[in-house]
Amino acid sequence: MKLSIAKWQNNHKAPAVLMIDDLNDIYLELYRDSFKNDWGYLCNNEGSAYNFLQKELLNKFPKIKITFFTPYAKHNVINPNGAKFKRYGVGEREEFSNFLQYLQNLGHEIAHHGSNHGKYRDINNPSTQNGNFIHEWELFDSVDEGVEVTLKGVELFKNIGINVSGGKFCGYKSRENSLEIIDKCNFLYWCANSGVNEIKRFGKNRVIKFPTTFAGNSFVRLSYKTGNFKKDFIKLFTRFLQPIYNKKEYKKLNSLYENGNILAIQEHISPSTSSGLVQSANIISDIKSLNKIFKFLETKDIWYATCHEISSYIELKDNTLLEFNNNELILTLNSNSKAESGTISLVLEKNLKLKDSSGKIIAAIKKDKNYIINLPIKIGKNNFEVVK
Questions:
Q1: How is domain 15-309 classified at the CATH fold level?
Q2: Is the pTM of this model over 0.85?
């Protein structure tokens, strides 16, 4: 019998994850609408950014899974010489800690996004433009320093009931020692680059280099205001080109799907910045674009999952050896795998029932022209007997 390990769980065509950066315990006083000012401070209360996202997107597409990239210290991109603000680090307010746990319990993910995100060259200039802001992983002069700061966050999250298994470079900025820092921290995955489709690994611990493949603002990029006079003046004319640009973006989205690539959709939690400019790619300005993206995906064979869930399946698949002898199926999970257990999906040409070592019967299900069977496995040999 022909059988193989599915590329994605349940043999879905492609996985999709909404990646939202900079969820933080911050409130900037800039706009009349509270949800535009909120970076996470208002938690899931009425008028919060998350409440906006829930009403305008998640209620319409409840299958969406989100990975929130969260700095654990007070976010330094909020310049004290800019707008008025409230700002706390993770663990400083019980309400925010409870909110992170709430998101995790819903099936979303909290991931590492550094400590304070970086620092200003000129603290008296609230603009992050023209190299005035240096992102965190550009600042570590030594690997040991980077490891210490990064693992401090892992432990802090753990203390409030959040287990982080991966993260992202702030601003996708790094230097020659950055990947070594992440490797020594032994994360499951790390987002190191944007605009890269392939899944690669790096370091001695073979950390998964998780791709970022699609911009959440793709379908509004030429039309919404940025707060920059010159850019917004140009957009008075470019907004008429948005429908043409949309055709290209739909083709890109469909190509990612048809090729079975990860649909990793990039966003930020808030449009507000202390410089007064609008944060590029944010859930408020991009809500129409996000609705177009997930409306398109609604008709596709999508596995909605977090970065952790997708990476865990990759780790499981890459470290599992499949053997089929007579009436026995053996799945051996490599002892070096970071995924110590999980569920692996097999694609079969015929219907099949299997019995595990405890006597439990697991049946295959029909999907398109094949059958799919999902088998729980753990480190070592996992034996399944064919039920006739």
A1: TIM Barrel (3.20.20)
A2: yes
